[in-house]
Specification:
By secondary structure, the protein is mainly α. The chain has helices at residues 3-29, 31-39, 44-75. It starts with a helix and ends in an 11-residue tail after the last helix.
């Protein structure tokens, strides 16, 4: 495994845990709202679908921002360039 693949895998793993912690925090914070939805007739699958859609949205936005920043940083000038004449 090359260093680039290892770093990519590490970044993917860190991103997964960041999304997991954000969604877990959202569930704990919204426990009263989830209870109210359940009392009003929402099924467990409705609540689960709502939370999974939110997690997918967070992941998609994070991936889009990461790709955009990666492209911008990759194309940024890296300092003075010297022209080598042969």
């Amino acid at each position: 495994m090359t260093n680039l693949q290892a770093m990519s895998l590490l970044a993917l793993l860190v991103g997964f845990f960041l999304i997991y912690s954000a969604v877990s925090f959202a569930v704990v914070q919204r426990r009263p709202i989830i209870s109210a939805l359940r009392a009003l007739g929402a099924t467990r699958s409705n609540v689960l679908t709502m939370l999974l859609c939110e997690a997918a949205l967070i992941g998609a936005v994070g991936a889009a921002v990461g790709v955009l920043l990666g492209v911008l940083i990759g194309r940024a000038p890296r300092g003075p360039r010297r022209r080598h004449d042969q």
